[in-house]
Design brief:
single chain, mainly beta, 8-stranded antiparallel beta sheet, 3 helices, 42% strand, disordered N terminus
């Protein structure tokens, strides 16, 4: 669940101290951009300029970015390009086709999620929002295996002792025998099944653990990772370690295909980058992969009327809806090609609420199922009657499927349509605390006898 992801944000702040010998493959594409003021500028989260910091880490020299810092490449306007680099950290990210600091394409790595289906994340950034819940696997998240350094291993039976909370003295002694130094404050934070990590607050170090064959292996995730990115028109291919076979392909980059800048991003903790090289591409490269497009079902609701933003009255929101329907101003919008309505495309004030209105005209009284999902808080009305009123409160409840991500089949309600015109309204509030997610997706079970507009 997403709680595990939150815990890994703590992990992202940890800098492990173990040494690691690595052999880097030679990068030989395009032009290299050394980390000097001639080529790069670094900004803090508040937009102020920061010094370019070069550090030795794990035996290699690279630029060090603190949490929420971004390094912008000063030159270059890239549309179709190939980019290769090495990175190190829990959540290193790359911005490309940057139009301005709040509008660009974004790829980042979830290194602690190595081998899992969400190890790579693509998101289109509109107005500075980071809607990871809306853009999910398998289209926008992908599996990848990152190189970890194994620093110790124990028999599988030790898993029974790796329970949430501080390590007992027996375990501490066992780690000491393998030359792994942990303080009495070190604690276990379990993940799924036999995986998790040990965090030592005394020196801010962390070790991932997982069952491998008949052993529990403890690993340091802070290793240098070789990445290549190919972007051609509306397709992106991501290569991890293996520069011949892509780990992840996105076939429909969401923003308009336009040239733009490049940035290196540290959203959740200190990360490092080295050996950045970029080559412009004039035409598509044949990856040998054929991607078939699947037509979107007509049952999805893609045409909406969007209201202006307002401050929600949590007590009298039903009366507030009636007022918005009578007095409010609406504009016609269309969902994207996946039927997702990402509100960040239209508005950027995540303290606010809005109404999405859709008309369903039925040739008779009938009941039809509506499937949907949302972020962050949603109230659904049919002809001003409340059918649904829930919020994810950023950390989704345990009943929320798919680790808190937005999938259309996660929620459902029954619509009792009357003969004639019916007004379906979604009152949708943003994720103000984290300023990440604000969107919805919906489809009808059947359109038999129903005109949807």
């Amino acid at each position: 669940m997403y709680a595990i992801f939150l815990r890994f944000l703590i992990l992202a702040l940890c800098i492990a101290q173990f040494s690691c010998k690595e052999t880097e493959k030679r990068i030989d594409i395009g032009h290299e951009f050394p980390f000097t003021s001639e080529h790069w500028t670094v900004e803090n989260a508040d937009g102020t300029e920061a010094e370019i910091t070069i550090k030795q880490f794990k035996g290699k020299s690279g630029i060090a970015l603190k949490a929420s810092q971004i390094a912008y490449l000063k030159s270059g306007d890239f549309k179709n390009f190939e980019m290769e680099f090495y990175c190190n950290g829990a959540y290193p990210g790359l911005g490309f086709r940057i139009q301005d600091k709040k509008n660009y394409e974004y790829l980042y790595l979830r290194v602690p999620s190595s081998t899992k289906k969400d190890a790579l994340q693509y998101i289109p950034i509109y107005k500075g929002s980071l809607p990871w819940q809306l853009y999910n696997y398998p289209q926008y998240e992908g599996k990848a295996t990152f190189p970890f350094q194994t620093v110790g291993a124990f028999p599988a039976r030790i898993a029974d002792e790796l329970i949430d909370g501080k390590l007992n003295q027996k375990l501490l002694d066992q780690f000491t025998e393998q030359a792994i130094s942990l303080s009495s404050e070190a604690e276990v934070i379990r993940g799924e099944e036999s995986s998790g990590y040990i965090f030592d607050p005394q020196d801010s170090t962390a070790l991932l653990f997982d069952k491998v064959n008949e052993r529990i292996e403890f690993s340091d995730f802070r290793t240098w990772i070789h990445i290549k990115l190919e972007v051609v028109e509306d397709e992106m291919s991501v290569y991890v370690e293996d520069m011949e076979t892509p780990s992840f392909i996105v076939t429909n980059l969401k923003r308009n295909t336009a040239s733009g800048g490049i940035s290196l991003i540290s959203d959740f903790g200190e990360v490092y980058f080295r050996k950045v090289q970029i080559a412009e591409l004039e035409e598509a490269k044949d990856t040998g992969t054929t991607v078939s497009s699947v037509a979107l079902s007509k049952n999805y609701l893609t045409q909406w009327q969007l209201s202006e933003m307002f401050t929600k009255d949590t007590i009298n929101f039903v009366a507030q809806l009636d007022s918005v329907l009578v007095n409010g101003k609406f504009k016609s919008i269309e969902a994207d090609d996946d039927a997702l309505v990402n509100i960040s495309r239209f508005y950027d004030d995540m303290t606010k609420t809005l109404v999405l209105r859709h008309t369903l005209e039925s040739d008779a009284d009938r009941q039809v199922r509506l499937n949907f999902d949302y972020a962050d808080h949603l109230a659904i009305f049919l002809n001003s009657e409340v059918l649904f009123d829930k919020g994810m409160d950023f950390q989704p409840p345990s009943t929320k499927g798919m680790e808190g991500r937005v999938f259309v089949d996660d929620e459902e309600v029954s619509l009792n349509l009357k003969k004639g015109q019916n007004t379906l309204c979604f009152m949708l509030s943003a994720d103000n605390r984290q300023k990440f997610n604000w969107g919805v997706i919906a489809k009808l079970e059947s359109l038999k006898g129903i005109t949807s507009r």
